[in-house]
């Protein structure tokens, strides 16, 4: 049992789970727009997500405590090292235009962790995008939307129609809602100057905002030129299950509530699509 728990913790802490969630949303885009699944792009997104997330999460720790890193963090560093080279391997197989768009989103991820702006913009001494009050959740949603909607379509030479931008905005809102349980969980630990949504309006109103965003997400489906009842049904089911996770999110939630179950919702979404399409 202890070994299983250690493997589960490594699976979550090494960002494998979140990377699979990103890949699931990418695959969903391929299905919704009737494009063949580009496995090279999916693998590239998986390994770049692992590399990017671990860089953001552990850059500060590795930088200042590299001589006394815990064994689990050393293992994650080694794993991330191999993922980085696999990311490069799949990157060279992609079209140049795909890499150029990806590079822009990668730059956002890089500056999310690396200090580069004057101290007056930040809530602490980190001087990175992560430390700008109120920006974190919107920045992450922007990157996820770009990676999981626009990159697959640009890579597949799909025209950027109104439906594409509606889907991109839906994905942006969905990721924001998906992050609300995390922000509620971290309410007790986050610096007050970070200005997270729960810090600014409280937990109850945060849940109301999440509910409204999910309703808007469903409503936007009716504005698509290619409207499908099956797609509306799946979106509604996903909105309901996501609403449940937001509704029952608490500051003292279980260890795996957000990091495993909430973050696993995109995988469930993909499963639904594969069953109904």
Q: Which properties best describe this structure?
A:
0% strand; transmembrane; 11 helices; Prenyltransferase; membrane; transmembrane helix
Describe the protein.
This is Prenyltransferase. The chain is an all-alpha fold and 277 residues long. It has one domain. Helix content is 72%, strand content 0%. The protein is built from 11 helices and no strands. α6 runs antiparallel to α7. The longest helix has 27 residues. The termini are far apart. 34% of the residues are buried.
Major β-sheet profile: none
Q: Structural class, please? A: mainly alpha
- Write down the secondary-structure element order: HHHHHHHHHHH
Shape assignment: globular
Q: Let me know the number of strands.
A: 0
Structural domain tally: 1
Q: What would the average pLDDT be, to the nearest integer?
A: 88
Strand content: under 5%
Integer-rounded radius of gyration: 19 Å
User: What is the percent of helical residues?
Assistant: over 70%
> Count of helices?
11
Uncertain runs:
none
Head-to-tail CA distance between termini: 38 Å
Spell out the blueprint of helices and strands:
Blueprint: H1 2-13, H2 16-32, H3 39-65, H4 71-91, H5 96-113, H6 136-155, H7 162-185, H8 197-220, H9 229-247, H10 257-262, H11 265-276
Helix pairs in contact: 2-3, 2-6, 2-11, 3-4, 3-5, 5-6, 6-7, 7-8, 7-9, 8-9, 9-11
Nutshell version of this structure?
By secondary structure, the chain is mainly α.
């Amino acid at each position: 049992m202890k070994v299983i728990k250690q493997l589960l913790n490594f699976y979550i802490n090494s960002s494998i789970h979140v990377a699979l969630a990103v890949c699931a949303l990418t695959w969903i885009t391929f299905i919704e727009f009737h494009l063949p699944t580009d496995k090279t792009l999916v693998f590239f997104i998986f390994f770049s997500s692992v590399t990017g997330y671990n860089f953001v999460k552990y850059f500060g720790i590795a930088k200042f405590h590299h001589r006394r890193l815990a064994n689990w963090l050393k293992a994650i560093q080694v794993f991330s090292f191999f993922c980085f080279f696999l990311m490069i391997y799949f990157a060279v197989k992609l079209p140049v235009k795909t890499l150029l768009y990806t590079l822009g989103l990668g730059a956002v991820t890089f500056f999310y962790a690396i200090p580069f702006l004057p101290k007056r913009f930040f809530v602490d001494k980190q001087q990175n995008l992560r430390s700008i009050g109120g920006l974190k959740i919107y920045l992450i949603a922007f990157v996820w939307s770009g990676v999981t909607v626009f990159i697959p379509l640009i890579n597949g030479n799909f025209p950027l129609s109104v439906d594409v931008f509606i889907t991109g905005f839906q994905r942006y809102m969905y990721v924001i809602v998906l992050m609300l349980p995390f922000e509620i969980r971290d309410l007790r630990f986050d610096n007050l100057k970070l200005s997270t949504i729960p810090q600014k309006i409280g937990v109850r109103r945060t849940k109301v905002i999440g509910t409204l965003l999910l309703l808007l997400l469903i409503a936007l489906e009716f504005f698509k030129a290619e409207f499908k009842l099956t797609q509306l049904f799946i979106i509604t089911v996903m909105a309901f299950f996501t609403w449940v996770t937001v509704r029952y999110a608490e500051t003292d939630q279980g260890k795996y509530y957000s990091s495993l179950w909430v973050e696993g919702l995109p995988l469930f979404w993909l499963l639904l699509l594969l069953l109904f399409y």
